[in-house]
Write a structure and sequence with these properties.
The protein is of the alpha+beta class. It has 7 helices and 19 strands. The protein has helices at residues 16-27, 65-82, 101-112, 122-128, 151-164, 288-301, 350-361, and strands at residues 5-12, 32-35, 52-54, 87-89, 92-96, 118-121, 139-143, 147-149, 168-170, 175-180, 186-190, 194-202, 220-229, 244-249, 252-257, 265-269, 309-319, 326-330, 333-340. A hairpin with a 2-residue loop joins strand 14 (244-249) and strand 15 (252-257).
C-alpha cells in the first residue's frame, strides 16, 4: 500500500516545540509536514496559558544558559520576522530562604556566565517592588532581562513562518502510530491518511510516550493548575512594576507573572498536587482545592495581589525523572528525533529546541545537549 504523500521530514505535534522544529526544518529547504491532533494553537497540552516565563538566570543547572541565550536571540529573530512582540522584558526574581537551591542556583548560573544581576533581601525586594511580601531574611536574585513569552502568539508565528518556507501543516490530525520503512525512513499513520518521510520528529508533549517505547516511564504527564487573581492594588502587578518570579517557600515552589492581556496576576505551584495522569483521561476542570492551594500562598506572599479569582486553568507538565529535558534520537531509530520531558520549564526554550530537533533529525547538533540524552536513564 502506497502512502498518500512523501516528505523529507514529518513533525508530530505542532505546539511550542513542534511548530519551532517545523519552521527550522522548512527554512533549511526540506519538504516538511507538520501534524497536530488538536487546533493550532490549543489548550489541551502544555503550550498555552497566555504568558510563560523566560529568564537568563537558571537555577535548574548552569548548562541551560547557552541554550537560553540562543533562545533569546531566536525569539527576537522570530518577532522581527513575524512583526509581533513575543518577549516582554519585566525582569525576573528567583528567591527563597538563605542557602535555598532556587536562589543559590540562580546566583551560581549568573556568576559562572557573567550575567548581570543584583542580590536583594526580602525587605529590599519589597521596597523596590511593593507587590512582593517575602520574609526579610529571604534572598532574591533580580535579573533585568527576564520576562515572559506569549505562547499562543509564538506558536502562530512559528507556524506561519514555517508555512511561508513551504511547510505543509495539518491540524485536527491524530497520529495513530509510525513504523520504519524498508529504506530506513518512516511511515506515519493517521485515521485518514498515511505519510512517508526520511525523518521524523516527535514533539507531541504528553502524548510522546504513546509514540515511542523508549519514553515510557521517563516522560510522564502531570496535572497542573494555574490561577489568575485580581489584585487589590492593580498598579503593583503590571509588567512595568512586577517582575516574573520563582519562589521557594515551606509550602513548595511557586511561580508567577504580572497581569497581562487578561485580568489578574498569574501564579502556579510546581507539581501542583503531584497527580500523574493519562493525557486522554484526566480531570481538566479546576476545583475548590486547586483554588485554595494557590490562594492561600498568594495571601501570604502577595497579599495585595490576592483579590477575587479571575480564572483557573489546567495544563500538563511532562516530567522526566531528573526534571531535565530529553533531546535525542531514538536508540533503535536514528532517523527519529524526540523532544520530551520538559518538566514545566521548557517553553522559554521552544525557539532553540526547534533548532536542536531540526539538527538531530538531519544528522547532529553543535548545541550542548549531552546532559539531555536518553541514555542517562539506562
Amino acid at each position: 500500500m502506497n502512502a498518500d504523500s512523501s516528505h523529507d521530514a514529518i513533525v508530530v505535534g505542532v505546539g511550542g516545540m513542534g511548530s519551532a522544529a517545523t519552521y527550522h526544518l522548512a527554512r533549511r529547504g526540506l519538504d516538511v509536514l507538520g501534524l497536530e491532533r488538536y487546533d493550532i494553537p490549543h489548550t489541551m497540552g502544555s503550550s498555552h496559558g497566555i504568558t510563560r516565563i523566560i529568564r537568563r538566570a537558571y537555577y535548574e543547572h548552569p548548562s541551560y544558559i547557552p541554550l537560553v541565550e540562543r533562545a533569546y536571540d531566536l525569539w527576537d529573530d522570530l518577532a522581527a520576522l513575524s512583526e509581533r512582540p513575543l518577549i516582554h522584558r519585566t525582569g525576573s526574581i528567583d528567591a527563597g530562604p538563605p542557602d535555598d537551591p532556587v536562589f543559590e542556583g540562580s546566583l551560581r548560573s549568573c556568576e559562572e556566565h557573567d550575567i548581570p544581576h543584583e542580590v536583594l533581601t526580602g525587605a529590599e525586594l519589597a521596597e523596590r517592588f511593593p507587590g512582593y511580601h517575602l520574609p526579610e531574611d529571604y534572598r532574591a536574585l533580580y535579573q533585568e532581562d527576564g520576562g515572559f513569552v506569549v505562547p499562543e502568539q509564538a506558536i502562530i508565528a512559528h507556524t506561519q513562518a514555517a508555512q511561508a518556507e513551504g511547510a505543509e501543516i495539518h491540524a485536527r490530525t491524530r497520529v495513530d502510530g509510525w513504523t520504519k520503512t524498508p529504506d530506513g525512513g518512516v511511515r506515519v499513520e493517521t485515521a485518514r491518511k498515511s505519510y512517508e518521510a526520511d525523518r521524523l520528529v516527535l514533539a507531541a508533549g504528553a502524548w510522546n510516550q504513546e509514540l515511542a517505547d523508549a519514553l515510557e516511564g521517563v516522560a510522564v504527564p502531570e496535572r497542573q493548575v494555574l490561577a489568575w487573581l485580581q489584585p487589590e492594588t492593580p498598579e503593583l502587578f503590571q509588567p512595568e512594576s512586577f517582575p516574573v518570579w520563582n519562589l521557594s517557600v515551606p509550602e513548595g515552589r511557586f511561580y508567577g507573572l504580572p497581569a497581562y492581556d487578561v485580568p489578574g496576576m498569574k501564579l502556579g505551584r510546581y507539581h501542583h498536587r503531584d497527580e500523574q495522569v493519562d493525557p486522554d483521561d484526566w480531570n481538566r476542570d479546576p476545583d475548590a482545592e486547586d483554588e485554595r492551594l494557590l490562594r492561600e500562598f498568594a495571601e501570604d506572599y502577595f497579599p495585595e495581589g490576592a483579590g477575587p479569582t479571575m480564572g483557573l486553568a489546567t495544563c500538563m507538565f511532562t516530567n522526566s525523572p531528573d526534571e531535565h529535558f530529553i533531546l535525542d534520537t531514538l536508540p533503535a531509530h536514528p532517523q527519529v528525533a524526540v523532544g520530551a520531558g520538559f518538566s514545566g520549564h521548557g517553553f522559554k526554550f521552544a525557539s532553540v529546541i526547534g533548532e536542536v530537533l531540526a539538527d538531530l533529525a538531519t544528522g547532529g547538533t553543535d548545541h550542548p545537549i549531552e546532559m539531555f540524552r536518553l541514555n542517562r536513564f539506562e
